[in-house]
Structure formats: structure tokens, C-alpha cells
């Protein structure tokens, strides 16, 4: 073999996936990105708990203080969102979905910029410290997508589908790390973010979720988000429990989603004109409404709703029947105020409250089982992603005994929700975002 043949052989070997230095460099950077997403998600979770605790600390024993903190906090958050971090408003999931459908790379760079990611985190923490009923999981999806997108720019990936795969993987890793639910992260990416499964991107998503999950496990240990429950349903009452929870959760979730979609287009009449003309005053008014709702609920509607849901799941404790209604109202008010923040955790908490209300209506059904069915029903009614809803509740509570009732509840609730809200919430908000940005 002459020198030329040897050189050609070495070049061919160098291009093989297992030995190519260029491909190995991409893999290493990609793995580092997944670790970064998980680390940011864990840090964000701890900071969110601190921000919510800070509000509770100052509000405890001072019933009048939320009437100052909430309006001031939401006003400041709205102003910072509009003038310092434009584009950071909302959940973060619609923006990520929109970015996956954008063809203008400069526009994707703006939506998934490091500046927006930092603003998303800081302003979500400010909202929680102000008593807003918001979650951190949606923002974590956009932050994860932003981290992976930045790495894609660093690697100068040549093909658009590779860049989209990184964004998709970052969002999925964000869900997996935020809830410590790797399987839910994968399903969420397929069912909600991409609405399809492509063989070319599946390995990228799976790897990101596995690496992010392992990093989360190493940082915070093996835990279940809402604790563990061994609740079961007997076959004789399961069908009735499924129907009751599905219909109630689907209707409530559909109303909630349709309300947010209508609000994103602008309210009609004088209310809509007032919001357009005086958006800052409207944000302050929303803060005042949050304080009123918080007073009516005895302070239970502030924050993510995580503590309330966990108590119901683990201890089968009950909250006042009006909790679910007030929490839903507080979440709507928080979202329409224009501040950043997600709806994942509040929706699961509302669903737990609905299940607690419905438990006495189904004789022989354990309260714990009804709470899980209520969470699944309402969440599926809101996001209209039944498989994700089933998997995420099952993983967050380490309960496989209710898999069939949970799945039946999720699909029936999805069908009921569609009677009210014809389009999935995140998809509709993503389309609205694209229209505003001009990113078709």
C-alpha cells in the first residue's frame, strides 16, 4: 500500500462516527450542554422555593402586606419585561414551539437568546416573590432550549434540522430536570414540542434527557416531585371515578385554556381598550386581585401550589372546596398580567384540589386515587397532551398501580376539553407569538 492509499484510508477512518474528532467534539459539547441544563434547572428550583418562601415569610402575620407587595412586584416585573427583557413574557413553552417553526435564524437567536433566558429566570423569581400563581417549569423549558441553541451556534451546525434537534432536546431536558421525570421529558418533546417523532432527532433528545436526568440525580438525589403514594382503585368504582374526574377536569381545563387564548388576542370592549392604553395600571390591578384572592383563600393561592399539591398527594389532606376555583383564578390573573411564569405546577395543584373536592362523590374511591385522577384530568384538559399528562403524574408520584385509570382519564378529559377549546393551548399561543413576531 503506497503513501497515497494510506492517507485516503486514514481519512475514511477519521470520518467514521466512532473515531471522528469533529463528531466527538460535538458530542462532548452536547453532553456538557445537557449537564448545564440540569444544573440550571436544579438551581432555578431552589431559587424558586426561596422566592416563594420569602413572600410567605413577609406576608405571615401581616394581612395587609400582600396588597402592597403583589401590585408593586407585578408592576416592576411587567416594566422589566417590556423594557429590559422584551420577549420574556409568558410561559416559555409557546416560544420554544414557535422557535422550532421559525426559518429566520436571526429571529430564533432573539427568541432563544441568553439575555431572554436570564430575564426569564430573574423575572419568574420576582413574580414568585410577589405572590404570583406561576410555575418555573415552563420557563425552564425555554431556558433549556436557549442553552442548547447557544451551543448549536458555538458548533456552527450546518443543517437547520440539527439546530432544531438541539432546541427540542434542550426543552425536553428542561422538563426532565425540572420534575426529575426523564420519561415525561421524552414524551413531552414528542407529543407537545414537536408533535411528531423523527428518527433523525430521537437520539439527540433521548441522550439529552438521560444526561440531564443523571445530572439531576447526582445533584439532588432520587426523589419524586410530589412525594409517593400507593393509592389504588378497585375495578368496581374505577369507571365512575374516571368519568367524574374526566368530565370535571376536562371542562375546567378547557375553560382555563380558552380564557388564556382569548386574552392573548386581546379582550373585547372597554376592558381590552383599558389594557392596551394602560398596561402598567392593569399589571398593578392584577397584583391587587392576587392579594384579594390570596385573602379569600387564607394565603393558599400564592406561589406555585407545590406544597398544597404535595400535602394532598402524600397525606390525602383536604383544602377548602373553593381552593381549586381560587387557584385557577389566581393563575389566570397572573398569566394575563403580562409577567413571565409557567402554568405547569399551578395546573397540577388545581387538579389535585379538584380531585379532593370530587372524592366524596365517588363512594369507595380512596381520596389519594381521586387526587391523582383530578391532577391528570385537569392537566390533560389544559395542555391537551394526554400521554404526557399520564406519564408526568405517574412519574411524579411513583404510582404505577393507577396507570390504566390515569390514561383513561387523560384521554377522556382531552376529548371533553376539545369541546370548549378547539386548539391546544401551547400550540395556539405559539401561533399567536409567530403572528406578533412576523415569524411565519
Describe this protein's structure.
With 440 residues, this protein is mostly helical. The chain has 2 domains: 24-220, Clc chloride channel (Orthogonal Bundle), CATH 1.10.3080.10; 235-437, Orthogonal Bundle (Clc chloride channel). It is 75% helix and 0% strand. It is built from 20 helices and no strands. The chain has helices at 3-14, 21-59, 66-83, 93-100, 105-111, 114-129, 137-155, 160-179, 182-193, 199-220, 235-265, 269-277, 279-296, 306-315, 323-336, 344-358, 367-383, 386-397, 403-420, 425-437. The protein is globular and about 65 Å long. 57% of the residues are buried. The mean pLDDT is 84.
Q: What order do the helices and strands come in, and which of them pair?
A:
Layout: H1 3-14, H2 21-59, H3 66-83, H4 93-100, H5 105-111, H6 114-129, H7 137-155, H8 160-179, H9 182-193, H10 199-220, H11 235-265, H12 269-277, H13 279-296, H14 306-315, H15 323-336, H16 344-358, H17 367-383, H18 386-397, H19 403-420, H20 425-437
Amino acid at each position: 500500500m503506497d503513501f497515497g492509499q494510506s492517507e485516503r484510508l486514514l481519512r475514511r477512518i477519521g470520518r467514521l462516527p466512532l473515531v471522528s474528532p469533529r463528531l466527538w467534539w460535538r458530542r462532548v459539547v452536547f453532553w456538557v450542554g445537557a449537564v448545564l441544563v440540569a444544573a440550571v434547572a436544579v438551581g432555578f428550583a431552589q431559587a424558586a422555593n426561596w422566592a416563594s418562601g420569602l413572600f410567605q415569610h413577609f406576608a405571615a402575620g401581616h394581612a395587609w402586606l400582600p396588597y402592597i407587595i403583589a401590585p408593586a412586584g407585578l408592576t416592576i416585573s411587567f416594566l422589566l419585561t417590556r423594557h429590559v427583557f422584551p420577549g420574556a413574557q409568558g410561559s416559555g413553552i409557546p416560544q420554544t414551539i414557535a422557535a422550532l417553526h421559525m426559518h429566520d435564524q436571526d429571529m430564533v437567536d432573539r427568541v432563544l437568546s441568553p439575555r431572554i433566558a436570564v430575564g426569564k429566570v430573574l423575572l419568574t423569581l420576582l413574580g414568585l416573590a410577589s405572590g404570583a400563581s406561576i410555575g418555573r417549569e415552563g420557563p425552564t423549558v425555554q431556558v433549556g432550549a436557549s442553552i442548547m441553541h447557544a451551543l448549536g451556534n458555538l458548533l456552527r451546525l450546518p443543517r437547520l434540522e440539527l439546530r432544531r434537534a438541539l432546541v427540542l432536546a434542550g426543552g425536553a431536558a428542561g422538563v426532565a430536570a425540572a420534575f426529575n421525570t426523564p420519561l415525561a421529558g421524552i414524551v413531552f418533546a414528542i407529543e407537545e414540542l414537536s408533535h411528531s417523532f423523527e428518527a433523525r432527532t430521537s437520539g439527540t433528545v433521548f441522550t439529552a434527557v438521560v444526561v440531564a436526568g443523571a445530572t439531576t440525580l447526582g445533584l439532588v438525589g432520587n426523589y419524586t416531585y410530589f412525594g409517593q403514594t400507593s393509592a389504588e382503585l378497585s375495578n368496581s368504582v374505577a369507571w365512575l371515578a374516571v368519568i367524574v374526574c374526566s368530565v370535571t377536569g376536562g371542562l375546567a381545563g378547557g375553560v382555563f385554556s380558552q380564557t388564556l387564548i382569548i386574552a392573548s388576542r386581546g379582550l373585547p370592549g372597554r376592558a381590552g381598550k383599558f389594557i392596551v392604553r394602560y398596561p402598567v395600571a392593569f399589571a398593578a390591578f392584577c397584583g391587587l386581585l392576587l392579594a384579594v384572592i390570596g385573602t379569600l383563600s387564607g394565603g393558599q393561592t400564592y406561589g406555585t401550589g407545590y406544597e398544597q399539591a404535595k400535602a394532598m398527594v402524600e397525606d390525602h389532606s383536604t383544602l377548602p372546596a373553593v381552593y381549586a376555583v381560587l387557584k385557577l383564578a389566581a393563575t389566570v390573573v397572573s398569566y394575563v398580567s403580562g409577567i413571565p411564569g409557567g402554568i405547569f405546577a399551578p395546573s397540577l395543584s388545581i387538579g389535585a384540589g379538584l380531585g379532593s373536592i370530587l372524592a366524596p362523590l365517588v363512594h369507595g374511591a380512596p381520596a389519594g386515587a381521586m387526587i391523582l385522577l383530578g391532577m391528570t384530568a385537569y392537566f390533560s384538559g389544559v395542555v391537551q397532551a394526554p400521554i404526557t399528562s399520564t406519564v408526568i403524574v405517574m412519574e411524579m408520584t411513583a404510582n404505577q398501580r393507577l396507570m390504566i385509570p390515569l390514561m383513561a382519564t387523560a384521554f377522556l378529559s382531552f376529548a371533553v376539553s376539545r369541546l370548549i377549546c378547539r386548539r391546544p393551548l401551547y400550540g395556539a399561543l405559539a401561533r399567536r407569538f409567530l403572528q406578533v413576531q412576523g415569524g411565519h
